[in-house]
Write a structure and sequence with these properties.
Elements: H1 21-32, H2 36-46, H3 68-81, H4 85-89, H5 95-98, H6 186-202, H7 214-226, H8 235-250, H9 258-267, H10 272-277, H11 305-321, H12 330-336, H13 344-348
Helix pairs in contact: 1-2, 2-3, 7-8
């Protein structure tokens, strides 16, 4: 295939610092000294789009999931450049699992002020920045900005993220816009880590997993979790699985949201990547889970730290000595230790042995 458009090589593939297709478009525009929208239009038209189709590229989701808009963009970039990298950095190849990316994609472009620093900047934009569960730059651990702190406007998808970039609306310097970091729960931090691992897995050119019959495997996975000893799960978790099964029955072949995948993986105490690769094998009963946003939280002030350490040691001993189907439920174990049942993972994950 003859290349008529010189795209820069994608950076960081196979790592959490993988480049985004938005960054590729803006960097290509810089090479040719044109606006990013011209590169976008050329790619979309080449991929089979029309003038009316350009307007749908005003949302971040149009550059990540496997939708018709992403299909046109990926196809056009591949035809023009002769490269297949766009399939990786848009998560196009994982459409069999994440579909349109519901629960995955941020509402608008995110910018790390350290990544756009004119001297020490990264030089390209990260795919991870555009995923909802990731709220901190995986390289600098800096809180990401969804809007300019100068004018208050949300960043447009094709906002430049190269070193020295300024706000496209007001011209304010983006590298000076550091904000105070808010407090996050242990579950949110776990989701952020798992989403980062998924980016590294999904953008790795060497990974060759396919997702044929994945919806059927997902349904089988839900059945496996539902048929397990229900004492292992809280009422909230049982209702969650029940609702997942009901949606799967009502709409066979439909894919779960990314948030649903995260919640199920946390319930089973497995990594998100392992759950995606082998959902049925990961549907066995587990001892503890990572909790969820709807679980009530309780303070540990009434319980000395030594008691939580004792619970940790007991968990470790049970995991080493007992088959998974004989393990007690989280509720029974914590009650036996005289500890509060809820809030264990959200606030004390470092003591859980996970």
């Amino acid at each position: 295939m003859m290349s008529v458009l010189s795209l820069p090589d994608a950076q960081g593939l196979g790592t959490i610092a993988a480049e985004s297709v938005l960054s590729i478009i803006t960097r290509t525009a810089d090479i040719y000294s044109v606006k990013s929208t011209k590169v976008l239009r050329l790619a979309v038209y080449t991929g089979g789009g029309t003038g009316n189709a350009i307007s749908v590229y005003k949302t971040i989701g149009s550059y990540i999931g496997r939708s018709a808009t992403v299909n046109r963009l990926v196809s056009g970039l591949s035809i023009l450049s002769g490269k297949k990298e766009a399939e990786l950095i848009t998560l196009y190849n994982h459409g069999g699992v994440i579909g349109r990316g519901i629960g995955l994609v941020a509402y608008c472009l995110r910018v790390c002020p350290d990544c756009v620093h004119p001297i020490n900047g990264l030089g390209y934009g990260l795919l991870a920045h555009q995923l909802r569960a990731i709220t901190h730059c995986p390289i600098h651990r800096t809180p990401l900005n969804e809007q300019c702190l100068g004018c208050g406007k949300r960043f447009a998808p094709l906002q430049s993220t190269t070193p020295g970039s300024v706000c496209a609306s007001c011209g304010d310097e983006l590298w000076t816009q550091h904000r105070i970091d808010g407090q996050t729960s242990a579950y949110a931090a776990w989701c952020e880590q798992q989403t980062g691992d998924f980016v590294a897995y999904a953008t790795d050119p060497e990974q060759a997993d396919t997702y044929e019959n994945w919806p059927q495997l997902y349904s089988k996975t839900l059945a496996g979790i539902w048929s397990a000893d229900r004492r292992i799960y809280s009422i909230t978790e049982k209702l969650f699985v029940h609702n997942c099964i009901r949606r799967a029955v009502d709409n066979p072949g439909a894919l779960p949201s990314f948030n649903t995948l995260l919640r199920l993986a946390s319930m089973q105490m497995v990594s998100l990547v392992d759950f995606i690769r082998s959902p049925v094998q990961c549907s066995s009963s587990r001892l503890l889970n990572a909790g969820g946003a709807k679980d009530p939280c309780t303070s540990r002030r009434d319980h000395p730290k030594e008691l939580w350490q004792s619970a940790k040691k007991k968990v470790e001993a049970l995991l080493e000595s007992e088959p998974s189907n004989l393990l007690p439920s989280k509720r029974d174990l914590l009650r036996e230790m005289g500890l509060s049942v809820t809030g264990f993972w959200q606030h004390y994950s470092s003591l859980s042995g996970a």
